[in-house]
Amino acid sequence: MQIGIVAKKIGLSVDAIRFYERNSLLPRAARTQGGFRRYGESDVETLAFIRRVQRLGFKLSEIRSLLKLRGNRVQPCAPVRRRLQEKLVDVRRRLTDLQKLERELRLALRSCNKELRKRSAHCPILRGTNARKRESAQ
User: What is the pLDDT of residues 9-33, one digit of tens each?
Assistant: First the structure.
């Protein structure tokens, strides 16, 4: 299969496939006499796997190690399970951080709304930023 057909089949861009190949996530494709890349069914399966685990939040380096595990004859589930657990812990931590950020943004917005009701509205966010800048300059 040529790269365009594979890209459509998997739902990736041609550039993404080339990127994965350059970064050794996908083996270098065989070439036709005309220089076009040719991919087999195993390449399509590998690309589908890459796309699936990327959606789960795995980084390229993590995907590389998962591909190595996938390539083993014996495919132990324990290391994959551990990686999934670590990813889940990381996602929960980021969710907590995002919830804190959401609260801070709501408070900042409430403060702005109160200030806008006054005639001479001075942005409390900008004032707070300037005050912090002055403190760090001293």
Answer: 999 999 999 999 999 999 999 898 8
Q: Where are the beta strands (DSSP E) in the chain?
A: 30-31, 37-38
Q: How far is it, in rounded angstroms, from Cα 132 to Cα 138?
A: 10
The encoded tokens of residue 14 equal: 């041609």
Take residue 121 and report the two structure tokens written for it: 């509205």
pTM comes to 0.71
Question: Closest Cα partner for 13 from 24, 40, 21?
Answer: 21
Nearest to 50 by CA among 33, 67, 71: 67
Q: Report how far residue 78's alpha carbon sits from residue 63's, in angstroms, rounded to the nearest whole number.
A: 16
H/E element, 109? helix 77-116
- d(C-alpha 106, C-alpha 132), whole Å: 20
Give the tokens for residue 76.
Answer: 């132990």
For 74-126, the pLDDT digits (tens) are: 777 888 999 999 999 999 999 999 999 999 999 999 988 888 888 776 787 78
